[in-house]
Amino acid sequence: MCGRFALFSDPPRISRRLGLSEVKAPWQARYNIPPGTWIPAALRRDDDSPLVLDEVWWGYKPHWANEDAPEPINATVEKVATSNYFKGAFAHHRCLIPADAWFEWVAVDGQKQPHFLCREDREPIWLAAIWAERADGAPGCAILTEPARGVAKAIHPRMPLVLDDESLEPWLDPDMTDRETLRQAIHHLSAEHITHWPVSSRVNRVVNDDPALIEPLSGH
């Protein structure tokens, strides 16, 4: 799954990668981003709108959903294209969540040990996501997850869908709506580029948000 991530790369660095001229919602460095908060995303509000970096709510609940409908933070790659709750957004409202890393937890001696997972070269990563307009008119998103690969499998059975650089434009292409066409065009970042290390359990509390959270534990 993906339930916590970090984004400390600055807006110009992120916007340059996508060739964006507009950042509607600049952000400050965050080292412990939880669900149920506003996060940056690259998206188009409609097919004719330019691509922008804007804020989305991390929690997916379309405006047409019943009051008691769920508000998931993740959507699985196995079901996102076929589930009635997600398939409209998968076809027409895809977005990218920029991140520097994500956190996951592994059981060690009866305790949950957090790990920091990122690219080996420390370049930002791009998490595939979908969004829908919420009842208040703002966009809300869910980050896609897939079975864990490479070293990430030792930490958790699932991981966010991290796209490779060549997949960013197709993922954001509003004309690409067919599931099979997308499947052929979209590729995840090779597992060999992912590394991880254990970090302080301070990350378990969302009130903690500082650079020390991503430092390796002593001895690692």
Describe this structure in words.
- The structure is a single chain.
- 12% of the residues lie in helices and 33% in strands.
- It is mainly beta and 220 residues long.
- A hairpin with a 2-residue loop joins strand 7 and strand 8 (111-119).
- The radius of gyration is 17 Å and the shape is globular.
- The two termini are 24 Å apart.
Alpha carbon gyration radius: 17 Å
Morphology: globular
Give the % helix. 10-25%
Number of helical elements: 4
Q: In CATH, what is the homologous superfamily?
A: SOS response associated peptidase-like
Name the structural class.
mainly beta
Percent of residues in beta strands: 25-35%
Question: Largest sheet, if any?
Answer: 7 strands, mixed
CATH topology: hypothetical protein yedk fold
CA(first)-CA(last) distance: 24 Å
> Which residue ranges are poorly predicted, with pLDDT under 50 across at least 5 consecutive positions?
none
Q: What is the arithmetic mean of pLDDT?
A: 94
Order of helices and strands: EHEEEEHEEEEEEHHE
Summed up, the domain count is 1
CATH class: Alpha Beta
Work out the number of β strands. Answer: 12
CATH architecture, please? Answer: Alpha-Beta Complex
InterPro entries: SRAP (IPR003738), SRAP-like (IPR036590)
Keywords: Covalent protein-DNA linkage, DNA damage, DNA-binding, Hydrolase, Lyase, Protease
EC number: 3.4.-.-
Pfam families: SRAP (PF02586)
